[in-house]
Amino acid sequence: MSRGLRLIPIVLFAVLVIGLAWRLIRPPSPAVPSQMVERPVPQFELPPALPTKRGLKSADLATGSPKLVNIFASWCVPCAGEAPVLKELKARGVTIEAIDVRDTRDAITAFLAQYGDPYDAIGSDARSNVQIDLGSSGVPETFVVDGHGIIRRQYIGPLSPSNIPDVLHQLAQVK
Amino acid sequence: MRATIGIALLLVSAPLLADSNLPPSYWANRQLPNPQAEAKAQTLMSELRCLVCQGQSIADSDAELAGDMRDLVRRRIAAGEKPSSIRKWLIERYGTWISYKPTGEPAAWPLWLAPVALLIVGAWLLRSRIRLKGRN
Lengths: 175, 136
Hints:
The complex is a heterodimer. By secondary structure, chain A is of the alpha/beta class.
């Protein structure tokens, strides 16, 4: 066997080691992005989570102006963490609609009393059906929906104050 | 000692962020009355990947979202929907990531072709060996 051929296993081994080291140093993100971005919001109609506020249906998301759809729950700790950011966005004139996943009326009432209520509407998604329909894989997640009801952007995980300029930019862009 | 107690406490404590305020959905942990439909649902559920406990199928995962997906799969099967159509519906939302069943997408071609390539390389190596022996 020629000398060049003998080197092949060593080269293959080196490639393997480099590949493994690369994935160890830069692990792939575990986030599963929704394939629904750039597509219309699926048809849905959720009952109100609270007696004092309307529920959410897909028609509410195609009213001519862009909106945020926040998927949250009272039992979700990072959702409490992003509450001040949503409050700030609301203060800057952003319309925020909500999908409340697997929650009870009492728990959500207490959550909103404690962390503030920036929502125009809250639909109750008791079996995570609409969450799955949107391609969302957890709470919290936030979708930017344009005036025609097309999903334009997905934020996975809690929004942080550093996201605010980007969110405002996205909303202004999709008008 | 303190560390040991700490670890022991961590082991028995309830994980944060784990559970919602609602019990599992009706069909999450309940078999369909029709055994054929249940068998179809089971096969499909074992081929769908859990979004929370990535690496487990939704049939194996205890995550609530997996329970809600089992509920969704069983309801749709009971309503007469084909498993392939439910899988397609989920792939439309989460990408091929959600399905354990391999697809024929171009990114997977090297994997399909690798065994053939290895067989060819093996045959070639074997041929040169046999030739060497024949010469002796």
